[in-house]
User: Fold this.
Amino acid sequence: MFVGPMLTVLLVVTAARIDRGARGGGTWCRPVPPGYRHLSRFAVLAARSLLLNVLGAGAPLLALGLLSSTQLVPADRAVEAVMVPWVSQLGLLALTLWPARQLSPVAALAAGFVWTVLGVVNAESAAWTVLPFTWLDRGALPVLGTHANGVALESHSAPAGASPWPPALLGALLAAPFLLLPRLHPSGSRSAKHLTTLDRQVFAPGATAILGTVTEPAPRLEPGRPRVVAAVLGMLRGTALTWLCPGTVALIALWLSWHDPNASVQLFTLLVLPIGALVLGLVVWSAGGQGWRAVASRATGISGPAVVLTLVTVAIAVAVSLITALLCLTAGIPAGHAWPLALTSATVGAMLATLTLWLAIRTSQAVAAVVGIIGILFGVLVGGTAMQRTLWPLIPYSWANYLDLHRMSVTLPVSLVATALFTLGITHATRKAAENS
Assistant:
């Protein structure tokens, strides 16, 4: 219901990043129709999405059937358990493919996340026929035999006896308009023009003589003191963080203006904070990782810039957490609840942000995103239910929600130690990233 569609979104985002890094595999500078190129990418990703659903649904059903005959699922139901979610996800695939190719991976990831959450929350709406995001999950309900939250369907409930194919086919048809959307700018057109101009300059008559001309060396400048902090802040100034952080704070303030602040604390600690820490780590390394080999060649070395990058990430997470706690205090929560909220959210937020940053550097941004999304899902399931009584120590993504002194005495020291360890891991991971870039 949630992880399956989000894995499809991550598949699209990762493929778009690889495609952009490889400059379209050479197709940007060749006479390939853009519409055909976009449709080809969609077809390839659709096949890989089918493989994801086979591995995610078909493989466990096969394993259960082999282990015990009492758990054997009929073949037609097993096929539906794979095909219905896959067909439903084709619209989501096309929806995220367009912003991933035309805007940015962050925009595609945000669009896919919002669409998936809306689909899960409204899957059983009576108006599902006119709500396109419900088509993503509505068809899976009668196949799985559960509500969107995993509770078994009652025999009298509407989805129990419904056919899964109408919403699934509507979800697939949703792909058509997104595949026909116009391009905001021709992919790679600037690269093609640049290459054409370069070819004219290099191969024009007399270019060889120009290239062979000996010029006087430029005067050597004495190196000044490197300003690492200013360089890191300047690097992040052009990223989405410049509007995401103040925008998040503004939305929280707007939300608190007409919702109960005491009830809204859990929304911040279980959703806003972990999602923000995930996006923060991904955006920071997306900006810093592109020129890390150049950073390594400077006199500052690698360790200094890596520590500064981590400290800036932690500072952003702490600042947003403290401002949010101040907004909650202003909205009316008791001061005795505000200071544990500020302390816990700042500490846990710093830990989660450094975890994401370390995973993005050490493995890849796709792996970091997968770990973050699954962690957020389990954090909501455990932190928002009675399961927190026994499972709370195992799910760090839910720790910001525990504001009693007994559990804070565990979560705060562990979070601080984990943040220090992740910082140390980041310095080592950036050294390998510089070698492999």
User: Anything to note?
Assistant: The chain is about 70% helix and 0% strand. The longest helix spans residues 34-67. The CA atoms of residues 9 and 93 lie 7 Å apart. The chain has a mean pLDDT of 81.
